[in-house]
Amino acid sequence: MAGPRRRFDILTLPAQQITQLTNAFNVLKTNGTYDGFIRRHMTAAMTPTPAGSTQTNAAHCGPTFLPWHRAALWELETALIAVDPTITGIPYWRWENEASLNAGNPKLSALWTAVYFGGDGDPTQGNRVVNGPFATWQALIWNNTTHTFSSRSPAGLIRRLGRDPAGLTTLPNQAQVTDANSYTTYDGAPYDKTSASFRNRVEGWASTSRMHNQVHRWIGGDMLAGTSPNDPVFWLHHANVDRIWWAWQRGATPLRPYLPASPSGPIGQRSNDRLVGLLRSDWTPNLVQDIGNTTNLGYEYV
Asked: Is 91 within a domain?
């Protein structure tokens, strides 16, 4: 691949590029690389940050939510490109547009077809996805009693699109994105689920703007757990979250900053603190602020 990485709306990509992408995902799953991303996400979710916190962890519920997932996306994207250098970048799923497409029924999106990422789970087959490129995948499950991972049998990811008893029946819409963008401060005290901030609106703990959490809960099934990267749709979802963050950052010059800025704020959530549970051990929120910075990232949204 020559030039900067470019991330496109997945619904605008030609069929050949979809196949190249899903083939690369399958290579990573077969050789064991992909399961490492599931393990690291779960590990970060189980790491209280700051130490002893019952409110925030290394990747969720606090300021590091957006930078942690930006770094994880870049690492996954790097692995896909290593398999197939013709891949330009991880695409994004613009879920806030779904309400205006397919007569307002997001289940009819091309994303949920066999030529893209497979369909809804089959209720007669334990809500497993039985078609598409990931139909033979075995999910990696965390056992909270034994503190071990194991592969779930039979094969098949679990999805319950808009019908999970523990989920939600709608996706976020553009009005919710606009609401999040009305917050011009990245984050603020107490830097957790209750903060009145852009980060908290996007992450989805504010009841009037569920955003990121709402998408996980609409897809349901495997997307409800700390092992949610089991479903490759996880990455399309988070690429869109990252795209929304980048657009917000560019709402001012210089870029709207990450908060809390070191040395203030909770330890582990500050701008120069190390992000936990990633392949690269020196990631910090500061290192991932500018996606155009080719020293650390180097990609763009199209």
From this structure: yes
